[in-house]
TrEMBL record:
It comes from the Bacteria. It comes from Streptomyces axinellae. This is Zinc-binding dehydrogenase. InterPro entries: ADH-like_C, ADH-like_N, ER, GroES-like_sf, NAD(P)-bd_dom_sf. Pfam families: ADH_N, ADH_zinc_N. Keywords: NADP, Oxidoreductase. Residues 9-308 form the Enoyl reductase (ER) domain. The keyword Nucleotidyltransferase does not apply.
Amino acid sequence: MRALTVDHTAPGHLALTEVPAPRPATHEALVQIEAVSLNFGEVHGATHPETPNGTVLGWDAAGVVVQAAADGSGPAVGDKVVTLGADAGWAELRAVPAALLGTAPKDADAGALSTLPVAGLSALHVLRRMGSLLGRRVMITGASGGVGRFAVQLAARAGAEVVAISRNPAQAEGLRALGAHEVHPEPAAVTEPVAYVLDNVGGQHLIDAFAVVSAGGALFSVGRSSEADAVLTPDALIGTDSRHDRSIRTFFLLGDPATDFSADLTWLAGELAAGRLDPGISRRTPWADHAEAVQALLDRRLHGKAVLDIQ
């Protein structure tokens, strides 16, 4: 089968090559992949010299089941599915356990579905950790990115007053259309306290966002797109003006290998197919033309999601 593999001599450190097809375990379905979406973390990982040539990366992919799991778990042959995994998504075939598969309407667009796993699940699970959001002010940094866009939509639907942070002023109108009540270029521009923060950026953004968290609130560190460290002084951690009992929590989607994501993936797929979630696809191309999309992502020129169609 063909796959997009690490090749340190190629543009973007990726090249289409022939690799052996996966052999599913008894609890895994074999999926014919129709589309994948790119995330900065995996694309950046391909550039690391320690990542061996020939490695098949890829977290997010969608397609159709061509062989059901031998143990009877998961979807049936012919079902359209969205898949999650730590690797091996950028290939024509992927072996996936039932816990990392969500079923989707048969007429759903595979490219749109492929945007859901990492970005959609991360947004959903972090917002759940915040508890009831009805009437709460919630800040989302990196709001024009994959996780950020889904978080804006889901938080607004949950009744939150969404404070979106995006350094690109061209994104403001689109973020308001998704449900943001306020859009600012940086957390330091926010003057009213927020109950929670979903931070995708790290560095100074994290420090400034934590400074406006109200008493009893929390900041959830989901990403570090700035690649900068955040150093908080004791005064910043303790807080002033009686804003105590605040916390910073980290989040990693695949931190617990026992987590079953199937129900959440299925729900997200249904919401997207019904038009109630906007996947925010800003670049879509056949996977043979992956180099430009990969470079745009590495250069931070891409807002939203990049999708590659497997052709």
